[in-house]
């Protein structure tokens, strides 16, 4: 099925067709599930316990989950397991909808003044590392998936609870794509926390229809060593790397009517290890967020042109961060507002929340980039809001978690027929 095709039996624009109100998710069970998820520490590369929990939860409800192994032996030496489950519809011509959420969090932050995995609830907020990013979204898609098992759907629903989204390479969703697990999918919903990381201020309920991409410059600067008492007799690679960092910080970047502007951010300069020697080597790492229309080749050419304009005495090699596979790139993407899945989600928002959704675009990157760009799936981010993500005091709004679960389940019924 092509991206712009209307699915057979599609009711995305029919406001009277959706999830039976009697099948709405149970709010208490949804938040109980969220608490259990938050209470399992799951920093990236340490997800075995939570993967087992998700598998067991789905298995106990008769959903026949499977482990999908993720292995990266060369750079990270990582071994882990995604959890995958499918609800099969009877119509081979109906679309397949992917529901994707990650099980991992950032490393536990030390500044918490309580247990970072407490799952404490106060004033409609549930606290814990990863509560918002994205165990709230994970709980929402798990309960939505469970609810959809009781619906007569024409098409399939594929649930993927993935590892290592927060790590350096997004290995879980990368492996789904490389192993062909999502090849038969027609569109995707990712329940990342949307409003807190949107390009513009939006409030839930919100649909985020795209995201900027990200390339990671890894630049080698080679100067000339000399005695530190006579720096003018050498070429200081650290100084030259600093000049290049400042120039790249001011680089003219692309603009997009939906995604806004790209950006650059120098992150690290490494070089010099002797007490009285001019550094002859330096390494510069720079974050480059890009918009649709900016390619990897464009980014390389921009940096090389900047080097030439500076007239540096050093030799400079512009490269990009080493990755397990050349295809592992966070490319930008935009999903058409007229796509049937967007229509389904908009009508579901009206049915569940009694309001029109806000529309926005994500400012950073994640697994949705792999799906929206690499896998070429129309991808929408629909997630609960909160605050302090990746920091002490992280929380998610519990009402948002329940609402997202209901919107996702309702939209699946509309989209799949």
TrEMBL record:
The protein, known as: Peptidase M20
Stretches assigned to the Peptidase M20 dimerisation domain: 210-312
Ranges annotated as biased composition (Basic and acidic residues): 1-14
Domain of life: Archaea
Family membership: Belongs to the peptidase M20A family.
Taxonomic source organism: Haloferax prahovense (strain DSM 18310 / JCM 13924 / TL6)
PROSITE patterns named among the record's database cross-references: ARGE_DAPE_CPG2_1, ARGE_DAPE_CPG2_2
Cofactor requirement: Zn(2+)
Keywords, in A-Z order: Hydrolase, Metal-binding, Zinc
Chain intervals for the UniProt region annotation (Disordered): 1-22
GO molecular function, one term: metal ion binding
């Amino acid at each position: 099925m092509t991206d712009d095709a209307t699915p057979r039996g599609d009711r995305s624009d029919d406001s009277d067709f959706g999830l039976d109100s009697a099948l709405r998710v149970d709010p208490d069970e949804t938040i109980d599930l969220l608490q259990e998820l938050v209470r399992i520490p799951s920093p990236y590369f340490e997800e075995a316990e939570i993967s087992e929990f998700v598998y067991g939860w789905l298995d106990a409800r008769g959903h026949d989950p499977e482990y999908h192994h993720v292995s990266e032996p060369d750079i990270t030496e990582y071994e882990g397991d995604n959890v995958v489950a499918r609800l099969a519809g009877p119509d081979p011509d109906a679309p397949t909808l992917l529901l994707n959420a990650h099980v991992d969090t950032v490393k536990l932050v030390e500044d918490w003044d309580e247990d970072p995995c407490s799952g404490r609830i106060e004033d409609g907020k549930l606290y814990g590392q990863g509560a918002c990013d994205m165990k709230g979204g994970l709980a929402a898609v798990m309960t939505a998936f469970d609810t959809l098992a009781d619906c007569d759907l024409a098409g399939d629903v594929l649930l993927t609870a993935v590892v290592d989204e927060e790590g350096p390479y997004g290995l879980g969703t990368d492996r789904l794509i490389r192993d062909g697990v999502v090849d038969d999918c027609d569109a995707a919903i990712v329940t990342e926390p949307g409003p807190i990381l949107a390009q513009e201020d939006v409030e839930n309920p919100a649909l985020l229809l795209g995201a900027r991409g990200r390339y990671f410059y890894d630049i080698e600067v080679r100067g000339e060593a000399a005695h530190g008492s006579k720096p003018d007799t050498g070429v200081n690679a650290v100084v030259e790397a600093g000049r290049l960092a400042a120039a790249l910080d001011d680089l003219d970047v692309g603009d997009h009517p939906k995604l806004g502007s790209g950006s650059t951010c120098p992150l690290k300069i490494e070089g010099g290890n002797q007490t009285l020697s001019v550094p002859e080597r330096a390494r510069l790492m720079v974050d480059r967020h890009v918009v649709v229309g900016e390619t990897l080749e464009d980014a390389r050419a921009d940096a090389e042109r900047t080097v030439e304009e500076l007239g540096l005495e050093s030799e400079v090699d512009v490269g990009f961060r080493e990755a397990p596979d050349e295809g592992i790139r966070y490319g930008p993407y935009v999903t058409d507002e007229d796509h049937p899945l967007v229509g389904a989600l908009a009508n579901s928002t009206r049915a569940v929340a009694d309001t029109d959704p806000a529309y926005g675009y994500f400012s950073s990157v994640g697994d949705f980039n792999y799906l929206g760009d690499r896998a070429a799936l129309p991808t929408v981010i629909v997630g609960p809001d909160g605050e302090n993500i990746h920091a002490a005091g992280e929380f998610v709004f519990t009402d948002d978690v329940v609402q997202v679960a209901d919107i996702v389940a309702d939209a699946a019924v509309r989209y799949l027929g």
